[in-house]
């Protein structure tokens, strides 16, 4: 599609002016006259664009390489003269002092000289192996992408994960986008045929370069020791961004840059896509997810949305709030002071803002004061993080301020986004760890992000940076994260094998621990064999175990568990994700199970090329539009 648009602009004679043709889904502009391809949404060195009509075969990869446009015109002119006059064996010199001979319409060769520059005119037989020359693009075995759907259903903005991975993010987001196109074709085929689904656009958000353009790198270089040079520079380029974010000086720079860049990209995207009516989601990886989380927790909902809640809050304060205070006093065996609190129009929120001086001014004796203050203190510790409950009242504003400063979050003026994110996806995120370090013991189950109603915490089981969120909401329960369904609708084979023999795990591992690795080796090296394709892999493994007398003879080959067994028990994890599960764990590959430590780094970087992650993102995004997968995946929520 891009080539057709460029050729149409060229054929229409639009090269006279500075004509700009959008390409690559609108992420790049081609300036036709300058023959340059320029990135639209991020900074990138301009690339050359060439109209290719004549090609020669390369030496190594055997691919056709285009000549420059100027030399292609010379070749075309010589070719047309030869065809018209019937005069062949034309000899031309390329800009690189190489020789091209047109023997006939089907035989044209390019000779690369092997002699010195003074002897380049020697006969072709004295030169290197001739290379084929071809006119036109017909019959060239090269896959030219057909282009992306013009319809954009949703926009996802992804800030950098921090560190020196800024260049990595552009490539990673490109991989994520390409995988999403293949997942749409595989799992949303019906919706595509009905023209309900186009594609999802993913754009990277740069903030690392702005932080390090402040001159801090020069200061770090001055104090960095010369020993173990590579390791120290690696730490300066990666890990130190975490410390920068926890600095009040640089935290403000980071949040300002991230928010302004996300707002800029959103505005620019709407300008270039005026017909866009979809929503906007955000995806953060590693430190980027923490930055997004802090931004979202400090967003302000629209006044019109808060008004019904505020009215309900005022009603509660005047009626139910006072009754709630009476219940608290009754619990503390202080019912005789109910009239005092009612006279002062004291509701629950006002009670929790009281100090000892306030209670003393109300005439409460020392003993009851101590009971009330102890009750307030204990409830505050149990419900440390609850910035919003019944609306945006003054008590909640005070609670937010207490959370930001008193609980370790860096005090900064968090900018507001120009849109309300539909869903927040966190990949390999340390959010849970940072909340714990800041002193948060528990997240209020009634809490939800002010402007974003969806939140998914996705992680690889071996990712050393990832932490869970759900245990902070329901600490009294122990439960596993949701197992992310495989994009082909099954469990990975090695997980199925061990599910089948889990009942005999103790005897199995006690008799032969090494057989675990043997089974995994079989599954990982024979995944492409007809045996495994036929679904008999687990049966073969179990037959080995029977033969070695490591399992009882009545153990049957692993069978897919019944639908009832795969149903995950319903667990209330609060409103942070609209009542749905938050933590999702990827299925590790069989080869990764050999050694968790070897694949730890890969586990932290795998999300951008993971089909399972991409499919979950697409499923949740399109579910907000009432569009579902062609076939539900087993085990999905």
UniProtKB/TrEMBL annotation:
This protein's GO CC annotations: COPII-coated ER to Golgi transport vesicle
- Which InterPro entries does the UniProt entry name for this protein? DDHD_dom, PA-PLA1, SAM, SAM/pointed_sf, WWE_SEC23-DDH2
Record-annotated membrane-spanning stretches: none
What PROSITE patterns does the annotation carry?
DDHD
Signal sequence, start to end: none
Gene Ontology molecular function, alphabetical: metal ion binding; phospholipase activity; triacylglycerol lipase activity
Q: Which residues form the DDHD domain?
A: 417-623
Membership in a protein family: Belongs to the PA-PLA1 family.
**Name of the molecule in the record:** DDHD2 Phospholipase
Mind giving the lineage of the organism this protein is from? Answer: Eukaryota, Metazoa, Chordata, Craniata, Vertebrata
What is the gene name? Answer: Ddhd2
């Amino acid at each position: 599609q891009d080539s057709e648009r460029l050729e149409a602009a060229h054929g229409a004679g639009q090269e006279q002016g500075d004509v700009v043709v959008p390409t690559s889904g609108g992420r790049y502009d081609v300036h036709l006259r300058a023959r340059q391809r320029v990135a639209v949404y991020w900074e990138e060195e301009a690339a050359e664009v060439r109209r290719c009509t004549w090609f020669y075969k390369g030496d190594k990869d055997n691919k056709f390489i285009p000549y420059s446009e100027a030399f292609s015109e010379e070749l075309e002119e010589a070719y047309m003269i030869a065809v018209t006059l019937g005069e062949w064996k034309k000899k031309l010199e390329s800009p690189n002092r190489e020789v091209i001979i047109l023997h006939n319409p089907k035989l044209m060769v390019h000779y690369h000289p092997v002699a010195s520059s003074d002897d380049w005119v020697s006969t072709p037989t004295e030169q290197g192996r001739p290379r084929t020359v071809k006119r036109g693009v017909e019959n060239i075995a090269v896959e030219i992408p057909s282009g992306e759907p013009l319809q954009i259903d949703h926009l996802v903005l992804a800030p950098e994960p921090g560190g020196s991975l800024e260049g990595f993010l552009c490539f990673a987001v490109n991989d994520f986008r390409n995988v999403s196109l293949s997942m749409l074709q595989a799992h949303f085929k019906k919706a595509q045929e009905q023209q309900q689904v186009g594609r999802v656009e993913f754009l990277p958000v740069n903030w690392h370069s702005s932080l390090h353009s402040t001159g801090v790198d020069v200061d770090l270089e001055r104090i960095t020791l010369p020993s173990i040079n590579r390791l120290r520079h690696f730490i300066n380029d990666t890990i130190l961004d975490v410390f920068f974010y926890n600095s009040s000086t640089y935290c403000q720079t980071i949040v300002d840059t991230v928010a302004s860049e996300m707002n800029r990209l959103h505005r620019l995207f709407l300008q270039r896509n005026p017909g866009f009516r979809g929503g906007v989601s955000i995806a953060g990886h590693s430190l980027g997810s923490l930055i997004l989380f802090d931004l979202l927790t400090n967003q302000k909902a629209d006044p019109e949305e808060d008004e019904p809640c505020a009215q309900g809050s005022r009603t509660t304060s005047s009626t139910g709030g006072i009754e709630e205070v009476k219940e608290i006093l009754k619990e503390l065996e202080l019912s005789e002071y109910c009239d005092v609190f009612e006279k002062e129009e004291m509701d629950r929120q006002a009670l929790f803002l009281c100090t000892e001086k306030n209670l003393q001014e109300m005439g409460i004796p020392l003993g009851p004061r101590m009971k009330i203050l102890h009750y307030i203190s204990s409830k505050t510790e149990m419900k440390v993080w609850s910035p919003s409950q019944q609306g945006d009242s003054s008590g909640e504003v005070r609670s937010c301020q207490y959370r930001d400063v008193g609980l370790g979050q860096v005090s900064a003026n968090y900018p507001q986004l120009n849109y309300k994110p539909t869903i927040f996806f966190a990949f390999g995120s340390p959010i849970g760890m940072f909340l714990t370090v800041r002193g948060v013991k528990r997240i209020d189950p009634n809490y939800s992000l002010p402007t974003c109603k969806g939140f998914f915490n996705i992680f690889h089981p071996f990712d050393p940076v990832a932490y869970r969120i759900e245990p902070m909401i329901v600490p009294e329960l122990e439960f596993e994260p949701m197992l992310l369904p495989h994009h082909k609708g099954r469990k990975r084979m090695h997980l199925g094998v061990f599910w089948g023999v889990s009942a005999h795990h103790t005897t199995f591992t006690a008799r032969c621990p090494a057989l675990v690795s043997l089974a995994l080796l079989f599954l990982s090296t024979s995944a492409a064999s007809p045996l495994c394709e036929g679904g008999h892999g687990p049966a073969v493994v179990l037959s080995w175990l029977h033969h070695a007398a490591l399992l009882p003879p009545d153990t049957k080959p692993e069978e897919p568990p019944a639908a009832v067994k795969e149903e995950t028990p319903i667990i209330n994890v609060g409103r942070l994700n609209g009542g749905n599960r938050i933590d999702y764990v990827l299925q590790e590959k069989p080869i990764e199970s050999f050694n968790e430590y070897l694949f730890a780094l890969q586990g932290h970087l795998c999300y951008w090329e993971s089909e399972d992650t991409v499919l979950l993102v697409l499923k949740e995004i399109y579910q907000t539009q009432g569009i579902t997968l062609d076939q539900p995946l087993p085990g999905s929520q």
